[in-house]
Amino acid sequence: MEPRSFPDGFVWGAATASYQIEGAVREDGRGESIWDRFSHTPGRVRNGDTGDVACDHYHRYRDDVALMARLGFNAYRFSVSWSRVLPTGTGAVNQAGLDFYDRLVDELLAHEIAPFVTLYHWDLPQTLEDAGGWPVRATAEAFADYAGIVAARLGSRVRSIATINEPWVVADHGYRTGAHAPGRSDPGAAIAAAHHLLVAHGLGVQAIRAAAPATPAGIVLNLGPQQPASSHPLDLEAACAEHDWLNRWFLDPLVGRAYPEPPWWAAGEARGELRDGDMELIAVPLDFLGVNYYSRNRVRSPLLPPLEPAGDPPERTGMDWEVYPAGLAEVLEFVASRTGALPLYITENGAAYPVDDAEPARDPARVSFLRRHLDAALDALERGVPLRGYFAWSLLDNFEWAQGYGPRFGIIHVDYQTLERRVRDSARFMGAVARSGRLPLDDVVSTAGPPA
Ligand code: FCB
Q1: CA 28 – ligand 1 centroid, Å
Q2: CB of 410 closer than 8 Å to CB of 424
Q3: Residue 170: per-residue pLDDT
Q4: Which end of the chain is more exposed for a tag (fewer CB within 10 A), N or C?
């Protein structure tokens, strides 16, 4: 067997998000975000961890960019902190905050790394949450102004701008379960938030196009196969319902379809947030779609008794998520069934594993995880999916939201005492794939070539 190759021009990078890596939460005029408030509220984040320091990327971005360049990546996906740019979400621009991203973009370009910007990776300015948050429409309107400001400043130099990262997680975890900031548990608010996130996307794309007409604009969704735990009709129905909420609730309106049937927990909601013209606004043509993929779910109906585990337990990551590489090709094919020739990117894929303290740079499980998922990406390409790039989650170990600093997703290890970076085998592996465009047949990590 020969190693399989990716198409010429394939985009290779790693992804991060502002609150997870930057730190410097009170510097240069940055305002408070819902994750500052949430992480400083006792009991919300494991171990009381906060993003106050995180990876200190705000001060170390030059070294981090140099490291990516040495590895051989040609792209980097990062997010902009809304409350650095507009400390209270609206009003006067905080130039010092915007300047940081300006410097970051210049640094990336100087290293021939294409910047892929995300405008909203979950860190809503606290002032906007205090005024109602995503369940109110004014937040979507404020987002459009913010999108225009960032696009005007950075648009001509970046490869693409995505509006929202994973709107499902924002609505579901932020407003339904309350596991994420702002920590609300209100089904009606979650459904309204979901709609306003899509309205924000539509208005945001319009604002990006007005400010930077040549910059590709899109959105990033998290998707995963929702498979029935058995062939019982109630399991089939439960799996379909999960599929509708996770995989179709956002994707369908984006491509001009109606919302699916509401989930059971929202069945009685009035949907008062829907306005004439919204569905057309949400379906504004996209230039690309980003897909974040981690795992699948086996869905058991809550009306049936728990299933006794049968056979060998499936392989799982440190997050207890099943390792299911075929699901990557499955979700890409599902998306392409709706988006046709639209360019797709895998904007996140990766895994957390416990660190071997004796050898923190050795991560064979992650190398194997990445290689098998890249193989699935090649399967999708072979089946005609217009996949244009792959971003590993994440460049660095970082603040994993409500789980704090416990789970380590980085292809680069971070020592949280010294903030020192250490290149893991998985980063070398990804760099070798990026430089050659070819996927090795096994998990061997070449120690030849950069970086030392
Ligand atoms: C995704 C998020 C990202 C990170 C990974 C593990 O849902 O977009 O910030 O937390 O999961």
Answers
A1: 26
A2: yes
A3: 99
A4: N
**Cα gap 115→76, rounded to integer Å:** 5
Cis before residue 253, ω within 30 degrees of 0? no
Q: Which residues are catalytic?
A: 166, 348
Which candidate, 317, 254, 326, 247, places its Cα nearest to that of 285?
A: 254
Closest atom of ligand 1 relative to the 165 alpha carbon: 8
Best probe residue, ligand 1, of 400, 403, 411 (max atoms within 8 Å of C-beta): 400
Structure tokens at 146: 């913010």
Distance (angstroms) between ligand 1 centre and the Cα of 104 equals 22
Reported pTM:
0.98
Q: Where are the alpha helices (DSSP H) in 111-245?
A: 126-130, 137-154, 167-171, 187-211, 233-243
Q: Which of 142, 17, 38 is nearest to 81 (CA)?
A: 17
Q: Cβ < 6 Å from ligand 1: which residues? A: 17, 20, 165-166, 169, 222, 292, 348, 393, 400-401, 409
295-330 tens-digit pLDDT = 999 999 999 999 998 899 999 999 999 999 999 999
- Peptide linkage before 436 cis (omega within 30 of 0): no
* CA–centroid distance, residue 355 to ligand 1 (Å): 19
- Low-confidence residues in the chain, pLDDT < 50: 448, 452
The pLDDT of residue 447? 54
Where is 57: in which H helix or E strand? helix 57-71
Q: Which of 393, 397, 403 to mutate to test the pocket of ligand 1 (most atoms within 8 A of CB)?
A: 393
Cβ pair 24, 30 in contact under 8 A: yes
Q: How far is CA 40 from CA 43, 177, 382, in A?
A: 9, 19, 47
Cα gap 253→195, rounded to integer Å: 10
235-277 pLDDT per residue, tens? 999 999 999 999 999 999 999 999 999 999 999 999 999 999 9
Show the domains of the chain with their CATH numbers: 4-303+313-447 (3.20.20.80)
**34, two tokens:** 């819902």
DSSP one-letter string for 276-344: TTHHHHHTPPPSEEEEE----EEE--TTSPPPPP-SSPPPB-TTS-B--THHHHHHHHHHHHHHTT--E
Task: Name residue, tokens 């120690």.
Answer: 447
DSSP-derived secondary structure letter, 396: B
